[in-house]
Design goal:
Blueprint (H helix, E strand, L loop, with lengths): L1 H23 L6 H17 L9 H7 L3 E2 L22 E9 L5 H8 L6 E3 L12 H4 L5 E2 L2 E9 L2 E8 L8 E9 L6 E6 L1 H10 L9 E8 L2 E7 L13 E6 L5 E4 L10 E3 L2 E6 L7 E6 L5 E6 L4 E7 L2 E6 L2 E8 L1
Length: about 325
Amino acid sequence: MKKCIYAAWAFLALSACQGKQSQTEPSGDTSAVDSEVVVQDQNSEEAMPEKPTKPTLAEQMANMKPLALVVESPEHYGMISLNTKGEGLVKLKVLSCRENGITDTDAWIAQNKEGMPYQSFWMGNLKEGEDTPFLKFLAMPETYDGLYRGDFEIHPGYNVVAYGENKFNNQIGYDCNVLVVTDNDFTEIKKIVDFRPFTKDFLESYDLNDNCAPTYSGYTVVGDSLYVVMTHHTYSSASKGNNAYLMSIDLNKGWLNWMTKTLTCNSQFIIIDNSIVCGYGFSGEPHHVYVLDRMSGERVQTLSVKKTPELFSLDGNKLHMRTYSYDYVLEVTK
């Protein structure tokens, strides 16, 4: 009796397995299909392209042709102009002036940074681990074409890294002669501007020594034009007054659109429509704020102030200005 039961159960189990197999497997020889499936899988894996590796910043810089600033007539430094006039130029009026704490610049920046045209960071003041873009900045190559990495600026939509000579043997570039433009995350090189040919011509034109070698800052782009400050260290008398220019450069050709008169800008500058507001001053020299025509570089307004202008921040029709020991608020009208 038990043998019959076991036999019955075995028969039922075998029948169930055969039934299930007939539902799930196609009839006939399936080896070719199975083989074809395997081959298709192998081919699809082999056909998948490898993800391209993004070039490093050093590789991007090495493969990018820099824009070299040139000028055909060096004797016209400080007198080049497009001879055009912008419309809607602004006017400034002093609303207030109060003494500051001199050492509270960081607090002023924290309060006004939203309206600042850009922020500058000096590498020597930054330490690893600070809550700044410093860690991302360290991805930039330490050297470029014989120059050393120096300061950097943060602009809306892009950053600018300066490369200059290593004058103090501390791996920090001074007297910037190359500006490298990156994205805000320091992952892509957008532009390299080489001022070295221009600097050489400038020094030879005025028979100046290397102590008056200019440095460049404030890289600001509007359309196809680059605006940048050109200054040197120490007193303007060292270069016979040939110092502190603001210049406009054609980004497509590397030509000068215009240069301002001498002693116009050794500060941050801010562009407001077709106007540029900047300032100049130094120990023992007059201190002024200038409104320039952005189309020609001509001065259209001059204001005397107590100390050298340093930083600007625009809030509506009020322009906040930081100097060494005074904070100004200026009214902006058209």
